[in-house]
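Fig. S4 source data, part A: sequence.
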Amino acid sequence: MTVLQTTPVTTEQTPAPVDVCAAPAPRHPRPNGQDSYTISEVVAFTGLTAHTLRWYERIGLMSHIDRSHTGQRRYSNRDLDWLDLVGKLRLTGMPVADMVRYAELVREGDGTYAERHALLEATRRDVRARIAELQDTLAVLDRKIMFYADASRATAYEAAAAGAATHAAPAPEAERTAR
């Protein structure tokens, strides 16, 4: 058996800008120090199905996923962070084709910042429009809820008043038998 010793090569480079969206805080706790997960572990962390994870890989939404010596997929913390971002993009309503395009742009490197920025700005405009639409819808619901709450209170008040009137003034026949 031959053992090779390698010495790391250091190069002077300016650090790349950090994309804070690329490494959000994980939604599910991950074991400390672990950076290799099976597909079933990723399913447990993300709530996605194994079928969805394979599909993401097949359509290019996920970059190449490492494999174990037996051919099983092995996901890294970086992959989990990416899946968290993809989940957020799905929540925005971004079409899958746009998410795949965004993934391609990320893989192409720093030269695509302007195009990524434009894609995310367009998505943000769509999200803001949906939020405004939902706020209008919520206002309608609030008005309807108040109407029915007021109507329920009025009906209950009327029923209580009608009940009190019948108890306060007994019918003459009931009055004679009560004496």
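Fig. S4 source data, part B ends here. Residues 1-11 have pLDDT under 50 and may be disordered.
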